[in-house]
Amino acid sequence: MENSSEIVSFVLAAYGNIGGLKYLYFIIILVWYLSICVANTVLIVVIRVDRRLHEPMYILLCNLCVNEINASTSLYPLLLSQMFSDSHEVTVPWCFLQMCCLYTSAPAEFCSLAAMAYDRYISICHPLRYNVIMNTERVFLLILLVWLYSFLSFIFSFSFIFSLKFCGNIIHNAYCDHQLIIRLSCAVPIQSFISNISFLLLSVFIPFSLISVTYMKILRVCRKTSKENKQKAVTTCTPQIISVSNLFVGCIFYFIDFKFLVSQVPDEVRIILPMYVLIFQPMLTPFMYGFKLPKIRQSYQRFLFERK
């Protein structure tokens, strides 16, 4: 057994068998990562330059796009750098940094959608008080609370990992996954199980419960309104519902992969499934909101064609 003091880097073993396909993988990952950054940045810029979109809903959407870029940047640059590496090593501090960014972006995603659901609830259920409740100061305070809550969720759940002593350094994945890192410790602590439960509770269950309650209240109000108001509610809420559903599917893939099917699926599937959300969600957000919301779609057209 290796002395724990000698562990200064981890080896990402998932890259060991890509062979000549590394050039193809590199191009695909690079194009996808740049597409995510461009799509989300364009949406942020469109909202920034069009004063008609300076509303709480779109400010919160900008925050969601920032988180999509943050989550993607936490993953894809490491994937790209490892494609042409011979050792596939990543230092312990960098591994911890990636883990911090990834597991902060997860609750930030759910909490951002919860904040947007609350905005829709106030808009639809309390329209006369909307401008008072959702003023600019409160919106930015809400965004600050989203990030603070997300960071504290990570610290509360996984900070014990930073003090672990490791007796191995082979991570059988393409990125620094906290569960695999914990398994490399000389003695797996009891906090391992507790941390998974607390992170699931804080990052997924609580925000998802708030979102569910909010939309149930919206649905109850919409049943009593006119057809026109129902259509407006459906138009503005559909992208958020799709985003939440996609996140929920990603969570199922993640936990099924690690808890039940580890020995029954090919390595490629085992590696890709946990990254489902990081692959599709950052691209889903700008396209869903860009094409589904009429005001943003119109702003896209003005931004891309009328500025010439």
TrEMBL record:
<dbReference type="GO" id="GO:0004930">
    <property type="term" value="F:G protein-coupled receptor activity"/>
</dbReference>
<feature type="transmembrane region" description="Helical">
    <location>
        <begin position="271"/>
        <end position="291"/>
    </location>
</feature>
<keyword id="KW-0297">G-protein coupled receptor</keyword>
<keyword id="KW-0552">Olfaction</keyword>
<keyword id="KW-1133">Transmembrane helix</keyword>
<dbReference type="GO" id="GO:0005886">
    <property type="term" value="C:plasma membrane"/>
</dbReference>
<keyword id="KW-1003">Cell membrane</keyword>
<comment type="similarity">
    <text>Belongs to the G-protein coupled receptor 1 family.</text>
</comment>
<feature type="domain" description="G-protein coupled receptors family 1 profile">
    <location>
        <begin position="39"/>
        <end position="289"/>
    </location>
</feature>
<keyword id="KW-0675">Receptor</keyword>
<dbReference type="GO" id="GO:0005549">
    <property type="term" value="F:odorant binding"/>
</dbReference>
<dbReference type="InterPro" id="IPR052921">
    <property type="entry name" value="GPCR1_Superfamily_Member"/>
</dbReference>
<protein>
    <recommendedName>
        <fullName>Olfactory receptor</fullName>
    </recommendedName>
</protein>
<keyword id="KW-0812">Transmembrane</keyword>
<keyword id="KW-0807">Transducer</keyword>
<keyword id="KW-1015">Disulfide bond</keyword>
<dbReference type="InterPro" id="IPR000276">
    <property type="entry name" value="GPCR_Rhodpsn"/>
</dbReference>
<keyword id="KW-0716">Sensory transduction</keyword>
<dbReference type="InterPro" id="IPR000725">
    <property type="entry name" value="Olfact_rcpt"/>
</dbReference>
<dbReference type="GO" id="GO:0004984">
    <property type="term" value="F:olfactory receptor activity"/>
</dbReference>
<keyword id="KW-0472">Membrane</keyword>
<feature type="transmembrane region" description="Helical">
    <location>
        <begin position="193"/>
        <end position="216"/>
    </location>
</feature>
<dbReference type="InterPro" id="IPR017452">
    <property type="entry name" value="GPCR_Rhodpsn_7TM"/>
</dbReference>
<dbReference type="Pfam" id="PF13853">
    <property type="entry name" value="7tm_4"/>
</dbReference>
<feature type="transmembrane region" description="Helical">
    <location>
        <begin position="139"/>
        <end position="162"/>
    </location>
</feature>
<keyword id="KW-0325">Glycoprotein</keyword>
<feature type="transmembrane region" description="Helical">
    <location>
        <begin position="237"/>
        <end position="256"/>
    </location>
</feature>
<feature type="transmembrane region" description="Helical">
    <location>
        <begin position="23"/>
        <end position="46"/>
    </location>
</feature>
